[in-house]
Design a protein that fits this description.
Blueprint: H1 2-47, H2 51-70, H3 78-104, E1 105-108, H4 118-121, E2 125-128, H5 142-153, H6 156-177, E3 181-187, E4 192-198, H7 208-227, H8 245-269, H9 281-296, H10 306-312, H11 314-334, E5 341-344, H12 362-372, E6 396-399, H13 400-417, H14 421-445, H15 447-452, H16 454-478, H17 484-487, H18 497-523, H19 535-559, H20 565-588, H21 595-611, H22 622-630, H23 632-635, H24 639-650, H25 653-660, H26 666-670, H27 673-683, H28 688-696
Antiparallel strand pairs: 1-2, 2-4, 3-4, 5-6
């Protein structure tokens, strides 16, 4: 019995294994049959152009093949062949679908690769062969079956991405970028055509409302004729909302489209004047309506997008744009030519904007102050009044660009007074930035001209002084009209004043050093004014003096009517003084001066005395310049020294002693005893009379 039992168990185990093997074989055969059936039904459906059914059968075949491949231990050679067959049929299906898709949505694109110009964009057309015909079956338009079949096969994203790129490049972006471009729609019996027409634009940039209307029209056309298609075929058991093609396309292109709308449309619509900010509500409303329309067509989902956020944040964008425009305008003025000038007189002032009376501020302060004063206050005001021009800028010339720059600063601050707090602060600091930019840009940008051209150096000096003059009161003028944050002493420009004064002075002093160097270089060719009885030496000295006078006259003309009179006279006086001082030093250092030498030196000095004052021509009217030419001793420190030297060159010993007058005469005021003794020794021979004269010079 035991043996029979063992035999039975062995047989049962064998039969069980055989059953399992047969069951597995049967399931594999069943899957193979399913694969075969699916391929056959796919072929039938494809022939009848039932693309959704064909795609579903292909997916069934793919599912069966995956099941077969997952069975371990049954690596059938046929599976490889089936896989190849499935790939071939899938590609065949995709080819047919691609052909159908190209017929449904046909693009006519410009021939050239450069699609950015308006002319090439005009050649772009989109033909939609999706107009439903009257005889069409209830099953829906062929576009639905084609697109749903793509979705079943997982290729819809690829196709839609290409379509979205073409739509952006050839239709949507050109409509945003070119104001003259208008969409033109034409519906025929079996086709809907979308093309462009060009009209003369009224403005350089379209208004957002116009652009939104154009884009909305395009999306309405696409929604009606192409994209209002659910991605999955209808099913009885599915009641939830079905995802449409429009939603899918919207996800793909919205980000790029909204960026383009912001950069090429909304940015240009930001007002440049605070008075126009209220009108911007229309743009915000039209943006809301545009987004609402796109949501209704299911192109957009979710709430506020970047586009609407940008439109609503107009105050911040206005401030940024205004500040940017102000700085760009200022920089353009700074890099324009300096030599175009306007005349500034004590009567002239920047065309100051009329400022409204502050609601708080001056009046309030007056009230507070008056409370501190007793009723019987004594009037301590001096009866002598200051001139109305005491704190005015003297008459001079400045660059017209600097006058415009100052007007820009005033207008920007006026704009700030009518703006929101945040915008007001930004605009105020933009004005400060204008002046800091001037400090950095102008000396660098015009560096070469400021070094080479004396007139430009003088103009730059005036420009800096003019700006510094206005900066003293600029903050105070607007103090109580700016936002409260700036009213507590922050609204000031006074801290910039020393820097601007220094900038102007340093530039002009550098030019003065250059001119001084040229004067000394010319006088160095005078051969130390020695041996004037030698004709060649005399000619060299005469030429040097003539060159110096010519240089001074040229400078006098260049700076005429440019520098303020007092600055002009000081500058010319300093340069003439340099020449006279050098001549005095050279002649005083001579060890031997013959009678002929003395005469010739005197004649050279007389040229300087006679023609030197003539270089003082601060005003264009010659008759008004005589006053300043007579005041030369005031501006030329060594003038009297030079005149005393001329007296010595022509005087005898007794006259020199008389001029010295025991150290109390005019000669003693200009020369030291050692210098006078040195000149006497050079001019006169060693005699007892000379020794007696030298003894009196103490």
């Amino acid at each position: 019995v035991q043996r029979d039992l063992n035999v039975a168990v062995a047989e049962f185990t064998e039969l069980k294994q055989q059953l399992e093997r047969d069951t597995l074989v049967l399931s594999i055969l069943k899957k193979l049959q399913e694969f075969d059936t699916a391929i056959k039904e796919y072929n039938t459906a494809l022939l009848e152009k039932e693309y959704v059914a064909a795609a579903q059968q292909l997916e069934k075949a793919r599912s069966s093949l995956k099941m077969l491949e997952s069975r371990k231990g049954f690596e059938l050679k046929i599976l490889k062949a089936l896989g190849i067959e499935l790939t071939v049929q899938t590609q065949n299906m995709l080819y047919h679908l691609g052909e159908e898709w190209q017929k449904l949505a046909a693009w006519k694109l410009p021939p050239s690769k450069e699609s950015s110009s308006l002319e090439s964009v005009m050649h772009s057309e989109l033909h939609l062969h999706t107009v439903p015909s009257k005889e069409e079956d209830i099953a829906g338009p062929p576009v639905a079956s084609v697109l749903q079949a793509f979705a079943v096969l997982g290729e819809l994203h690829t196709k839609l991405k290409i379509f979205g790129k073409l739509l952006l490049k050839y239709i949507l972006k050109p409509l945003i970028s070119y104001p003259s471009l208008q969409p033109l729609t034409e519906e025929q019996s079996d086709v809907f055509i979308l093309r462009f027409k060009s009209e003369e634009p009224n403005l350089d940039h379209s208004s957002p409302m116009e652009v939104f209307d154009k884009i909305k029209l395009i999306f309405e056309v696409l929604h009606k004729y192409l994209l209002n298609v659910p991605l999955d075929p209808p099913a009885e058991d599915k009641k939830e909302r079905r995802v449409t093609l429009a939603e899918l396309l919207g996800d793909m292109i919205w980000e790029e489209l909204s960026d383009c709308l912001i950069q090429n449309c909304l940015v240009n619509s930001i007002p440049t004047n605070s008075s126009k900010l209220e009108q911007y509500i229309e743009v915000i409303k039209s943006t809301e309506e545009f987004e609402k329309a796109l949501k209704n067509m299911q192109f957009l989902k979710g709430d506020t997008t970047d586009l609407l956020k940008y439109a609503r944040n107009v105050n911040s964008h206005f401030a940024n744009k205004k500040c940017q425009d102000v700085i760009v305008a200022a920089r353009n003025l700074m890099t324009s030519e300096i030599h175009n000038t306007v005349k500034i007189t004590p009567d002239s002032s920047v065309a100051l904007p009329k400022l409204s009376d502050p609601a708080t501020g001056d009046d309030l302060k007056m009230q507070k102050t008056s409370k501190l004063l007793p009723n019987d206050m004594v009037n301590l005001e001096n009866e002598t009044k200051l001139s109305q021009y005491t704190f005015s800028l003297p008459t001079c010339r400045i660059s017209s660009s600097v006058e415009k720059l100052m007007e820009l600063a005033y207008q920007t601050l006026l704009e700030a007074t009518a703006s929101t707090d945040q915008c007001c602060i930004q605009l105020f600091y933009s004005v400060r930035n204008i002046f800091q930019l001037f400090y950095d840009v102008v000396p660098t940008y015009h560096k070469e001209n400021l070094q080479k051209l004396p007139q430009l150096a003088a103009l730059h000096h005036n420009n800096c002084m003019y700006i510094a003059h206005h900066l003293l009161t600029l903050g105070h003028q607007f103090r109580y009209r700016l936002t409260n944050i700036l009213c507590d002493g922050a609204a000031t420009f006074v801290d910039l004043v020393p820097g601007f004064r220094r900038l102007g002075m340093e530039c002009f002093l550098a030019q003065m050093r250059v001119q001084k160097g040229e004067i000394l270089e010319r006088l160095s060719s005078a051969r130390n004014f020695s041996n004037m009885d030698d004709e060649e030496n005399y000619c060299a000295a005469n030429k040097a003096i003539r060159q110096v006078l010519h240089q001074l006259k040229r400078l006098g003309k260049v700076w005429q009517d440019v520098l303020p009179v007092n600055v002009y006279c000081k500058a010319m006086g300093t340069l003439l003084n340099t020449a006279l001082s050098e001549i005095v030093t050279r002649i005083a250092a001579l060890e031997d001066i013959s009678a002929e030498d003395a005469d010739r030196l005197y004649s050279l000095c007389r040229i300087m005395v006679e023609e030197g004052p003539q270089v003082f021509t601060p005003l264009p009217e010659d008759d008004k310049n005589k006053k300043y030419q007579e005041e030369v001793p005031v501006y030329v420190q060594k003038w009297m020294t030079f005149k005393e030297l001329m007296i010595i060159l022509q005087a005898n010993l007794q006259e020199i002693v008389d001029q010295w007058a025991d150290g109390k005469g005019p000669l003693a005021a200009e020369f030291s005893a050692a210098e006078v003794k040195s000149l006497i020794r050079a001019l006169f021979q060693n005699t007892e009379r000379r020794a007696a004269a030298l003894a009196k010079i103490k």
